[in-house]
Amino acid sequence: MKPTVATFVLLALVLLSSSLLQTTIAAGSSFCDSKCAVRCSKAGRQDRCLKYCGICCKDCHCVPSGTYGNKDECPCYRDKKNSKGRPKCP
Question: Per residue in 39-70, pLDDT tens?
């Protein structure tokens, strides 16, 4: 009887941790979405700005304040380069 209870408890813990992980990932996504919406609000190509800002935010876990500049607030965001050596993050 005890191995069955232990198995049930272990299974419940795995399912609980999985649901908590999904909640954390979703919260991180809304963080990036809101920060990138502000960052890209004045961009001429909003779709492109939001795409690359989202990629950089997910990698760096931060987005500089404002719509332009301030990249010193987030060195990872500042230092990301594309394949041509130009800044990747808007």
Answer: 999 999 999 999 999 999 999 999 999 999 99
On whether the CB atoms of residues 79 and 73 are closer than 8 A, the answer is no
% the chain with pLDDT above 90: 67
Q: How far apart are the first and last CA of the chain?
A: 59
Residue 71 · residue 77 · CB < 8 Å = yes
CB contact at 8 A, 35 and 49: no
Q: One-letter amino acid identity for 31?
A: F
> Is the CA virtual torsion 27, 29, 33, 36 positive or negative?
positive
